[in-house]
Amino acid sequence: MRDGGYFHNTSMSKHNGSPLNCNLFMEPSFCCVSAIFLSTRLGERYSKENTFLFLNPFALQPIKEDVFNDIVVWKSTDGVSYSAYLGGEKLVE
Predict the structure, then answer these.
(1) What is the spatial distance between Cα 17 and Cα 34, in angstroms, rounded to a whole number?
(2) Core-most of 28, 30, 61, 72, by most CB within 10 Å?
(3) What would the pLDDT profile of 39-56 be if each residue is shown by its tens digit?
(4) Does 6 have pLDDT greater than 70?
């Protein structure tokens, strides 16, 4: 993970073909969701390889990232770009 390999899409297509905005957390007006939790399939154990937490920098009820030390947490410190952290340490420069 330290070598990068991450990319960003501004939108994706849902299973029914309708667009999904991938930049909602970059909108200050979108403050009703604190985070998005993406994980592995049911029955698989959570790990840093298959579980990710994306924090909303504009959330009315922010989630403390230090609660999740063993998964990759994506957060924005400037409200413009995101970086990945694991155990409080930035993974990609």
Answers:
(1) 26
(2) 72
(3) 777 788 877 788 888 888
(4) no
Asked if residue 5 belongs to a domain, the reply is no
Q: Is residue 60 part of a domain?
A: yes
Q: Which domain holds residue 35?
A: 11-90
The string of DSSP codes covering the chain is: -TT------SEEE-TTS-EEETTGGG-TT--S--EEEE---TTSPP-TTT-EEEE-TT-SSPPPGGG-TTSEEEE-SSSS--EEEETTEE---
Residue 45 placed within a domain: yes
Reported confidence tier of residue 61, pLDDT bands at 50, 70, 90 = very high
- Say what the pTM is: 0.71
Q: How many domains does the chain have?
A: 1
For the chain, the farthest-separated pair of C-alpha atoms sits apart, in whole angstroms, at 38
Mean pLDDT of the chain, nearest integer: 79
